[in-house]
Amino acid sequence: MKWAMIATWRMAIDGITEGSQLLKEGKRAGEAVETAIKMVEDYPFYKSVGYGGLPNENCEVELDAAYMDGDTLSIGAIGGIRDFKNPISIAKKLSEERFNCFLVGTGAEDYARKNGFERVNMLTDRAKQYYEKRKRETIEKGLSPYAGHDTVGMIALDCNKKMVAGTSTSGLFMKRRGRVGDSPVSGSGFYVDSEVGGASATGLGEDLMKGCISYEIVRLMREGYHPQEAADKAVSDLNDKLTKRRGKSGDLSVVCLNNKGKFGVATNIEGFTFSVITEEQKPTVYLCENENGKTTYEPASEEWLEAYLKRIKSPITFD
């Protein structure tokens, strides 16, 4: 197989469809990943990534992103950046640096400003409304504020056998100021090696980091595991370890792709979705189920896809 792209969640389908056009034209995986993730970041109804992303406890949007080149193993990452558009592009630029390639907070913002990245207020009116609703529910109904942590994570393989991984997220909803999860952390939120393959994770970053899960999947693929076997084993093993040692495990979901274009996916939750497109397969959204440590999936129906769009665009109401 010449090229392929896989990403976490339904929200990535339009992005990987656009990115695949570049791969068809012989463009590089990095360009495809950046283009695809920027589309997710720019869509205001995706409330866990980029513009319109859900804010922290102080109603500030802090964004994390990362980019990794599977040929050189170069990494660029940012954490807790505010008021800059398209953090994936900032991370990609940072991957060109020999030193200082992971910047956070004001340091990341200074770097973005000096390198001409667009400054934008990333907090939308809709996100503020959602914040106020959840704040009220937290106080009045005792609901957990930490709901909403859906990272877009992506891996691409191009016609030159180069592989790239990218991530972008606004992180845990109503998180403490300065909190950073797994998404920009190499080996946890992402990892890619063009000689083997790549993986990316989404879910509760605090738990995903406890298993360095993306690196573990790539390691298993290097040992000869099929991507699906590697994904299932990594998620099942970490879920079991956390349950045994801590009494419970947070949400753990992963996607992976090897350097031959074969993909895998695994989750320990209900409702995980992913998006994939290859030279041989049209862009498809899949719905996942997990039973006894094995993940299965089937294409989303047109009815499900229509209901999804209706749900994410529905007005925010206060009881």
From TrEMBL:
GO terms for molecular function: hydrolase activity, acting on carbon-nitrogen (but not peptide) bonds, in linear amides. The record marks 150-151 as: Cleavage. Gene3D superfamilies: (Glycosyl)asparaginase. Substrate binds at residues 179-182, 202-205. It comes from the Bacteria. Coiled coil: none annotated. The active site is at 151 (nucleophile). GO terms for cellular component: cytoplasm. This is N4-(Beta-N-acetylglucosaminyl)-L-asparaginase.
